[in-house]
Structure formats: C-alpha cells, structure tokens
Amino acid sequence: MGRFRAALSEPCLGGIAEVKRRSPSAGDLRPDADPAALARAFEHAGAAACSILVDERFGGSPADLAAARSASRLPLLAKGFFSDEAQLGEMRAAGADAVLLILRDLDDRRALALLEHARRLGLDTLVEAHNAEEVSRAERLGAEVIGINARDLSTFAIDRGTQLDLVARAPRDRVIVAESAVHSRAQAAAAELAGADAILVGTALMRASDPASKLRNLLARPLVKVCGLTREEDVAVAVDAGADLLGFILARESPRRAERVLETPQHVLSVAVFVGEIRDAGADLVQLYARENGHRARDAVMLRGDERVATVVDLPWQEPDPTQLDRARAAEGRVMLAGGLAADNIRAAIDAVRPWAVDASSRLERVPGVKDHDAVRAFVEAARC
Prior knowledge:
By secondary structure, the chain is α/β, with parallel strands linked by helices. It is 34% helix and 25% strand. A hairpin with a 2-residue loop joins strand 19 and strand 20 (370-371). Helix 2 runs parallel beside helix 10 (211-219), helix 7 (160-169) packs parallel to helix 8 and helix 11 (232-241) packs parallel to helix 14 (373-384). The radius of gyration is 22 Å and the shape is elongated.
C-alpha cells in the first residue's frame, strides 16, 4: 500500500488540502500561492495529504510539486490531465506519491495502462468519477482510491446531492474521496456520513485568509448541534453562532415540538428528531429514539436514510445519570453526546468523552421551544473553542 492510500485509510475523515492559484470556473483564487509554505502549513494543520495542481490552466507546474516536496513530508497528489506514461514519470521525478486519473478523459484501455504504469513507478492513483457509470468503471479497473467529484468538468456545475448518493453507493472495499463543494464542517461531515474516507478541498482553502486554519476547522470535532428549534429567528441565531447541525423535534409528546423542519442554509445539516416512528420530513439526518412508557427512551440512533451512522448517548427522560460520560466513552463508533449540556459544562464533557458531536436543547431555552440567544451563542462558542 502506497503512502497516499495509507494516509487516507485511517479511521477518521482525512483531508486532502489542495494548492491551486486559479481555476477555469472561479478565476483567480490565490495568484501568489506558495506551494512550499502551504504544504508545510497543511501538514501542521492535520492534512492527510496535499494535492498540487501542475496544469498551467490552474496556474500550476511540476515545479510547484517539487517545491511542496522539499518542504513537507505529506503524501503529495499530482493533479492534472494525464494521458500518457511519460507524464506519470515526470510527476514521480518531481516528488509525487500519487497522480490523478480522470475517467471522463480516458477509455478503459488507456486508464488501465496508466494504472499499471503508476504501480510500476510506485505511484498511487486517485481515479476520478463524476457519475454512476464512471464509478462502476473505476471499480472494474481495480482502482483502489476512487474520487467522486461534485463538479461537472464540462459545465462546472456543482451537484452535491448526486455526489453524496454516489459516495453512499460506492464499493466499501475501496478508499472513497469526496471532491469539491466542501466549504463547512457540516458539508465535510455529510461526505463522511455518506461513506467518504476523505475530502479533497481546494477553493475553500485558497479563498480563506488562513488556509491552514480553514482546513483545521473543516476537520475539527466535535460537531455542534442545537436542538429543539421551533422558530426561524432561533435557527438564524444558531447558524450565526456557528452550529453545524440544527435539530427539529417532531415527536408529538415533546413540549419543543416543531411543526416541521424549518429551512436551513446549505452549509449546515438539518436533523429531524422522532420518537417511536419516522416519517419523511425532508431533513438531512434523522435522530430516532424508542418510545418507552409514553416518552422517549434514554439513547437514540442517528440515521442517514436507512443507515445507522452514529449513536446518541443521552440522559434518561427527566432524570440524571452519573454513568452517562462512562457510557459515552464505552460506546463504539461515532458518538453524539446529549442531555443537560450548556456552556458551563460542555468543555469538561468534551474532554472526558471526545465525542464526534455534542447536542444541547433544554438548557439553551427561556421557555420550552424558545431559545435564549445568549445561551445558544455561549454554548456553541464553548463547544468549538
């Protein structure tokens, strides 16, 4: 297994940080980008790998790859439009650990020849697909790392919904990379929950005042959920405060019951909370509790479609539980910690459990269903610091 593939095979969501000065779709992004300085900064920020545009249409060259190699130990992906073996040899000589192969531009015979030549050179490959047919081709060709791009390279249009569906249906014995259209932690998490092992981020980093800080923020955990929202003004405050997930309780017995899932911006995820039974509410995720004795059970599951993607470790209904943090630490997989959380105890809870996400509701209210805006801001700030 090559360095690039190995770096993306770690249990947590990996980040491939991309260096590009411009793009055909967005124009100039960071004309003065220094590949060496950026690669070094991305390594310190926790990137799994670094992608270097070597095509002149993106303001890049093989010299940028060599500069990044001189400054960083990260696995480097050479990103360009490669169609012959000599180009792969040039990238290897410049310091690449992996190269991009775009199936839109390659028939199966040419793609297979390049895959085999890359293996002979000791290069990993990121085989890029844009639709279900190309994902199937990548699988048949034996691609070990498959990139699924949200951007149509012909029109430059972005379709995140289709991308996430393709990620969810991609073969689980391959490393899957979600490319493009990640600008927020919630969007990164959406790719993760669909099944991506890594995200490739370029434009969002190049437009940021501090690209390394932006990368660190995209990969940071826990995610922060504000639940029990019933009013548009409370949604707006939670979004402005920096919440990643917004929860809408649709269970009939809850004093915080919302009539529906309210509209949310594209850079956050909506969560419909049910007790006992589920109905289609148009949310990105579902949080489902069993019903016991006329109210919710203690813990819940987080669902993406029909797939369980996280465990919610909560308090019993209207009761304390001194074992909650111990139970959360013992839970396997992604854990969302919920119940009794607010600004005054969230840091201690995070330090004790290291959860994937945290969830607060009742302690952020003035009355049930009506948020205290100062409490919401304080909770999100404390959880994200």
